[in-house]
Amino acid sequence: MERIARKTYYAIGEVSTLTGLKPHVLRYWETQFDMISPNKNRGGSRVYRMRDIETILLVKHLLYEKRFTVEGAKREMKELRKGGRAAEAAKLHTDPAVLASIKEELTALREVFTLPGG
Q: 0.85 cut: is pTM over it?
């Protein structure tokens, strides 16, 4: 997996790499799940935040691993949101490889910015 640093915004290509989903799938899910709503930059390109990526990974888990239909996944997401468990569930199903990649990048950055002997 390509290492991508943790940052505020991710382009659709980066999100595609991180999640293992094609960009057209991400765009389709954006129309089906109201909680996936990336902002657009000045150029009109989608920019995703980490919470969007976590939500995408939760939807991927519901659709691909738990074998929900799109409608079933929508209902499940609605129940999770109603119960206040959506953010918790999204973090729980975030791909460990993504988290490991982010952790490696943060560790490398800390080493770069740490003063010798400090």
A: no
